[in-house]
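Box 3.1. Reading complex inputs
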Amino acid sequence: MSDIKSNKPLFTRRATLKGIGSGVGAVAATGVLPGSLGFAQAQSSEPISIGFQVHRTGIGAAYGRWYSRTTEAAVKRINDMGGINGRPVKLVAEDDGTDPKRGAEVVEKFATQYNCDVAFGTLFSHVVIGSAPRAGELKLPYFVVSEGHHVASGRLNRYTLQPGITDVKSQVKAMAPFVAENLGKKVTMIFPDFAFGHDHRDYFSAAIKAQGGEVLETIAVPPTETSFTRYFPKIPRDTEVLYHVMVGPSVLTFVKELGEFFGPSRPEIFGFIDSLEAVDIRSPGLEFLNGTYFWEGNPRHAQADQSPYDKNFRAAVGVDDRGASLSDSKDVSTYSHMFGCWETLNVIKKGMETAGYQGPADRAKLIEAVEAMTDMAHSDDHPQGAKWFDGKTHQVFGHQYISKVEDGNLVVVHTTSIEDGMYDDEVDYTTRPL
Amino acid sequence: MEFGPHLLLASLEGFVTAAILALTAMGLSIVFGVMRVVNVAHGEFYMLGAVIAWWVASLLGGHPAIGFVLALVVAPLVVGALAAVADRLILQRINYDPDRTIVATIGLLYIIQQTTLMTFGPEARPVEAPFNTRLALPWFEFGDKGLTMFWPWGLSTTSYKLFVIGAAVAILLGLWLFMRHSRFGLLMRATQQDRETALAFGIPVDRVYAWVFGLGAGLAAVGAVLVVPIQQAHYLMGQDPLLLSFIVVIIGGLGSLPGTIIAAVLIGMSDGIISVFFTPTLAKIIATLLVAMVLVFRPQGLLGRRAQ
């Protein structure tokens, strides 16, 4: 725009207006000009910008709230420790409405409009599956915190990684022996009818079969459902174990109606804590859960042998010993998932430091640095527990917890080893071009 | 589960759906019948009812019944007043022009929904039922020993769900009496039959419209207050009831109150039974198909009158 004067000494009013108009148009159209110019000028003092794709609204809103809090706490900690490569970290948070189409647009905005260094933080599997292809095309490192098996299945791309949370296939493989040995072998499954629920259906069915058990019936429920009693009569009478996992705004209704359906004669119940994330387990109507079992990604209630790392993590995020907000005990966290944001950010930090990351030109180096990671020690960076990262499948493996409900407390009764959840590689992303 | 108990359970679930649906659809039907306004924001008035119920119940401590009863009074009044104001401020200004009222109420839908999102937030919040005991239901069967009674596994309902059905019947009965025997009911029916003549007889049609719009929204709010202890208050909860209410009103006949009730029971029961025995998606498909059939073969609805 400033060239106009020097190039055209005899400028007219019309030419100037045209020039300004086209200049403004170009900036508006690309949206990158000010950002990239600014970045080039301030090489090393410019913050590292992390695009945070957050489910602020839609069916994932409760998770989004806690993913935000955890992410902000983790970024604060990283900045307090001096940032990444001496540069502060800046979050660019944008709501995706828990919607795959919107998710892809958000990823695109991170890459082209905000010029973020990486994108991060998506949970719901359908949003990940909708967004990841765009991240791959734009060559934007995309760190998801989703649990879905889509990363390790080879369905996504080299730029999508899941280094902070284990996937469903690994979780159910680790759990199945406990279910078969302690609860029963005839299982009926209730799960949400989308990619995440289908992972449960497919991999748990296979895992329980390997233990000599069988799945009698699979009951898929749309994640936007608000009334559940109508689904329960499909549970066969000879069910020994009811396996439930549910997401969405109506999880409390789901569990309550489950209790009302069974009354005094319930089978053994094994649930994924997803069915009760962000819900107080002492809510009225949930008394029947006493004596049932839950998978927990990270024990919500502080255990007797709580690690110092878990203690520090709770303090940093603002969560009490029952997994609720320090400022409002009714505001229960999504404790089994949100640690993934914290750990993923620490992986990004470590990856950028190893790669000597300077700017978007080094994105490929960052991917290679993360792919080279293997062991992650139980520490303040990884408060949930030790982990092992598989660079070929872009998926991390870790410990799983099985808790029993006793007087409204979740008490860990079994912790699986990392090896319990391992399976053969289904893909080698490192062979794909960067 | 055996067929008999299974059917009974499905019917009970269907009756609860039908009860709430009858209240909500009745609001939509009255508004259309009297004002000829297609209120696309109706589902949001329903959602507001649930949100206000949560707000009232959480402000008050003590026994959950206190909050619930207060919510049952406060929520419809607040929602009704809000709707009446919206009628005065928006619908009256555009002279109830059919095209523009649809656009205006779509706008209203987004304003209410997004304002709720910004203030109440995106979470689903529960309201505790005033009472909720599980009632196991017996089943009778003819066997070798004659009639025997037994308690099938899983066959149960709750006292609160029965209360919802009873309350909806009572409210609809009250509404009918009010329409038939009160002065305001008379004004409403007069306005519905012929707006011009009503105006000529000195009926303040503008004010009647505001009241009717408030009454319609209030009925949706009552339905929501009744349902919120079973489900939870959530800012997107108005979408399904809106769709179902339209289905009910189209099948029953726009503006026909008995038709609305018959259609609500029909849709609610078929939704309950089909979704128990088959899938909830099939129930929605059949309901929509039914709408198409009614529109093709009986455009005025089951009990509607042909436009003159």
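In summary: The CA atoms of residues 17 and 31 of chain A lie 20 Å apart.
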